[in-house]
Amino acid sequence: MIVLLLCVELVLRTLNAMYLTTSYVPVILDAINYNGLAFFLLANLLTGLVNVSVRTLYVDTGLSVVILCGYMLTLCWLTHLLHRRQLRLRL
Predict the structure, then answer these.
(1) Is 70 exceeded by the pLDDT of residue 17?
(2) pLDDT digits 0-9 by tens, 21-53
(3) Which of 12, 49, 63, 86 holds its CA 20 to 30 A away from the CA of 4?
């Protein structure tokens, strides 16, 4: 299934490069590029939150996958939300 999705992505990128002059960038990559510092700081805060709240050495494999998926979903959602509202963290 993943191979099929990667093939579709490759075909779409090839067609886009052949017929259009604009480049295709996935929304989440554009959001991370727009606000890289916020992505990094949020990732560190979420990592600390997971490490404090869960005894990670003793967690079952299935639960660890759920934790990782929730971690990435939260991180990507917050980064996308900041990008959509055009909020940028600067120092």
Answers:
(1) no
(2) 566 778 888 889 999 998 999 999 999 999 999
(3) 63
Percent of the chain whose predicted confidence (pLDDT) is above 70? 77
Give the angle subtended at the CA of 47 by the CAs of 29 and 86, to the nearest 5°. Answer: 35
Report how far apart, in Å, the C-alpha atoms of 19 and of each of 6, 12, 14, 33 are: 20, 11, 9, 26
Residue in this structure with the two tokens 């939150």, named with its chain if needed: 49
pTM, to two decimals: 0.67
Least Cα distance to 46 among 73, 27, 65 occurs for 73
Statement: residue 20 has pLDDT above 70: no
